[in-house]
Design goal:
This protein is 33% helix and 29% strand. It has 205 residues and is of the alpha/beta class. Strands 1, 2, 3, 4, 5, 6, 7 and 8 form an eight-stranded mixed beta sheet that branches. It is globular. It binds guanosine-5'-diphosphate and magnesium ion (MG).
C-alpha cells in the first residue's frame, strides 16, 4: 500500500524486483543507482554475488508529479535463497509494483517458472489477487549466445500481456525502459490510491 505524507504532499510506493536467483535483479538496481549517485543503495548481507538479504534503493522523483504530489519510489529486490522465504514474503507483501526479472539462459527456464509461481503463491497467501499487483516483465541476459528469444519467454511467462522489456542489464540495456514501465504503473497506482484516500471535496467546499 502506498505511504502518504500529506503535509508534504508526498506519496511513496514500493517497486520490488523479483525473479530467479542470479537473474540480474541486483545488476538492475546497481545500474539505476549509478544514474542516481545522490541515492545510496544498501545491498544487505551479500556473500560473493549472492544477495542474501535483498537490496534496497530509495529514489525520489521530484519531477514526476501525481496530481501535485511528489512521487517517491523505493526499489528493492527479494532475496532468492530458500532460507530467506520469510523475508522474501515480507518484501513481496509490501510491493505496490513488481518487476519480474526472468533469465534468458536456457538452463534457467525451470527457475523462472518456480520463481513466478512463488511470487503468485505468496501474493495469494496474502489475499492479494495475482492481477491485483501490477507486474512488469524483464527478459534479461538477451546477450547470451543461446538466449531464449524474448518472444518465447513472453509466451511462456506472460500470457496476460503485462508490459515486457528485453534487456542486457549488465550493459544497462533495457534497465531504464523497465523502470519506466514500472513508473507508469506506480503513477497509476498512486492516482487510484489518492482518489480513494483523498476524495475530492464537494464543489461548494
Ligand atoms: N550475460 C549477462 N550476464 C548478466 C546480465 N545481467 C546480470 N548478469 C550477471 O548475472 C549474475 C547475477 O546477477 P545479479 O544481478 O547478482 O542477480 P540477482 O541474483 O538476480 O540479484 C552476475 O554475474 C551478473 O553479472 C546480462 O544482461 N547478461
Ligand atoms: Mg541479488
Amino acid at each position: 500500500m502506498p505511504n502518504l505524507i500529506a503535509s508534504r504532499r508526498q506519496i511513496s510506493l514500493r517497486v520490488v524486483y523479483a525473479g530467479p536467483g542470479v537473474g540480474g535483479k541486483t545488476t538492475n538496481l546497481r545500474q539505476i543507482q549509478a544514474q542516481f549517485p545522490e541515492f545510496r543503495m544498501a545491498e544487505l548481507a551479500t556473500a560473493g554475488e549472492r544477495t542474501l538479504g535483498g537490496d534496497f534503493l530509495p529514489v525520489a522523483l521530484g519531477a514526476e508529479r501525481v496530481d501535485g504530489w511528489e512521487l517517491k519510489l523505493s526499489l528493492s529486490s527479494v532475496p532468492g535463497q530458500i532460507q530467506y522465504a520469510d523475508s522474501r514474503a515480507a518484501v513481496l507483501k509490501a510491493a505496490d509494483v513488481i518487476v519480474f526479472v526472468a533469465d534468458s539462459h536456457p538452463l534457467r527456464q525451470q527457475a523462472n517458472l518456480y520463481a513466478l509461481d512463488d511470487v503468485r503463491a505468496l501474493l495469494a497467501a496474502e489475499g492479494r489477487k495475482p492481477g491485483g499487483v501490477p507486474l512488469v516483465f524483464q527478459y534479461n541476459k538477451c546477450d547470451l549466445p543461446d538466449a531464449i528469444p524474448p518472444e518465447e519467454l513472453d509466451a511462456r511467462l506472460n500470457p496476460g500481456g503485462a508490459p515486457a522489456v528485453a534487456a542486457v542489464a549488465l550493459d544497462g540495456v533495457g534497465v531504464f525502459e523497465t523502470l519506466a514501465e514500472a513508473l507508469d504503473l506506480a503513477v497509476a497506482e498512486a492516482r487510484r490510491y489518492l482518489a480513494r484516500a483523498m476524495p475530492p471535496r464537494a464543489a461548494s467546499a
